[in-house]
Amino acid sequence: MKTRIQSLLMLACGFALGFSGQTNAAKTTKIVIDGSTTVGPIAKAFAGYAMEKNPDVNITVSESGSGNGAKALINGACDIADMSRFMKPNEFEAAVAKGVLPVAHVVAIDGIAIIVHPSNPMAAITLDQIRDIYMGKATNWKQVSGPDKQIVVIGRDTSSGTYETFESLVMRGEKVVSGAENVGSNGQMRQRVQTTDGAIGYVGLGFIDRSVKPLKVDGIAPDMGEVATGRYPIARPLYMFTNGYPKLGTPLHAFVTLYLTPKGQEIIESIGFVPVTRY
User: Fold this and answer.
1) What is the arithmetic mean of pLDDT over 261-279?
2) Is the sign of the CA dihedral 121, 205, 10, 231 positive or negative?
3) pTM, two decimal places
4) How many angstroms separate the CA atoms of 223 and 111, rounded?
5) Tell me, what CATH number does 216's domain have?
6) Bridge partners of residue 156, in order along the sequence
7) Is the pLDDT confidence value at 175 over 70?
8) Mean pLDDT over residues 144-155, rounded?
9) Which domain holds residue 66?
10) pLDDT tens readout for residues 47-64
11) Structural domain total, the chain
């Protein structure tokens, strides 16, 4: 798992180097951000810090999903696209066709936690069991060593980067059962699971709290330490994409490189994600 993520980190750096000659010509004090609900908390925390340090900079953060963030960057509707997955080849093609050169900034590493209602006595689950549940093979918790209770499958909409990571690392080409209920964000997923006894769902590490119960996966806990070691099996990089590499010294450059500073790393850890410097 760690090797896979390190490869994505290197790929992202390669794109950044390849487009390093491209800069954002616009010198503006307004920064518009859109995209992933997973990366959203990092962007909001960074925005709060950046605007406190520089009152002349105005930063807005929207959370419409990774796919919509990519579209916004391609269409010139945002300066930064937050994405919890790497940009797809067809998205790159659409961007280049419009004169946009996406550059990836890997701001943190995240684990996707499998969550259930706190009343569920289960403490652990396997990848195979998760796949069986989401395929519809297991419909009662007792089929996966749990209580005699119907499973309520909660998934994410297809524009979500978290959904695509789950599909790749957990489903491995298998289709999610048609009866699964889909929600639009990590926050909605957590809310749905915490109010439904038999529910199962998945969220980024930063969305775990006492209202839901995270399960160990293949014996590994979904926490920052295990993600940092590369042992936790459902993990991925988190990105901020810009159109070209931001001009040095601009507020945009300062924002997308904040993750490299001690303060940025502190913010990332405080939210519950893993700084790239720890991975």
Assistant:
1) 92
2) negative
3) 0.82
4) 7
5) 3.40.190.10
6) 183
7) yes
8) 97
9) 2-109+238-278
10) 999 999 999 999 999 999
11) 2
